[in-house]
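Researcher: Next entry in the queue.
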Amino acid sequence: MLTFQEIVKARERIALFVRKTPLLRSNHLSERLNLELFLKLESLQDTGSFKVRGALNRMLGLTQEERERGVVAASAGNHAQGVAWAARRLGLQATVFMPMQAPIAKFLATKGYGARVIQHGDTYDECALEARRWAQLHGALWIPGFDDPEVVAGQGTAGIEICEDLKEMDAVLVPAGGGGLLAGVALAVKSILPRVEVWGVQSESAPALARSFEAGSRLSVPSGKTLADGIAVATPGEIPLEIIKKLVDRVLTVRESFIESAVVTFLERKHLVVEGAGAAGLALLLQEEELLRGRKVVLVVSGGNLDLQWLDRLIQRGAMSLGRRMRLRIVLPDVPGSLAKVTQMVAKTGANILQVFHDRLSPEQPLHFSRVEFDLETKGPEHIQEIEKLLSQEGVEILQ
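Model: Structure for this entry, 400 residues:
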């Protein structure tokens, strides 16, 4: 099994290339969640994720002959960028395979780092199978995303940094897909601070590692649609899983709605752009508020490569889940002044009307009534209840 000394060597090897990312205390989230919360911001690493650590460590160990053959990788995004960036820094030719549905931002970024990008398959596993076939055909060296001891050692360097910056903690929460980051961080943290708990976090839509951890053996579990695309892996790595079984305390899953809320919370309260995978740890704390109450917790924020096409939608959906937006549907008599009366009532509560849709032609309503839909900016769940209560008291019919 991989040793802690190999992680120490990896840190020495990659030190000239990677940043020591900050570990920051979040006062707001600490108060909100009733614990002491620290954020290890790998989202501020070069390429926007921790993946450069493992990719660099693997490539720096290549012989000259292997370097000349070039490297090939498969990834939904962050490993792709890490390999492309590392290859450019080291003067290597990189070919990266990405699934057809890979986020556009990650596709463009990978090309921008100078790699040749080939899209293939609908899932990571289909893509990886083709990439390995291509590597054998062209003699290029395969750079795994997680199932490789040198890659795991590189990812584990983040764990050493955590322990350097925080001498005492109770738990470290790590996003987990293939398991490379979780295994590396667990080995580093447990070697330095054995009493600290290390937990893995996955989306319930992609729970292969959690199921494998429970079963004690590697299982394949098809991934569903998830915002946490960076940890949507159908089969965890064999090498990481052996470490995880021995050192990790728990591997838990979170619902998609909480991942969305966590991304929005990072943006609104911390002014950080965090991708779904990177927000998994915070999502767990939002979903299970009593789980680590009163304890000192580190969240590994593993990446910040959020596709801009999702950002606006996430903000709107997240605002609605937090009670900051309200979709109000009502039925009004189709007579002059009825709509104005309702808008005045809404204004009286302090809500901001963003848009109004007025439907007089709906066959679901009697002829002399119309359906009106308001999109409101609100202050929270209690404010929404206040609006509904006022309208109901005034005889306005609210549709569910």
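Model: Residues 149-165 form the longest helix (17 residues).
Researcher: Noted, moving on.
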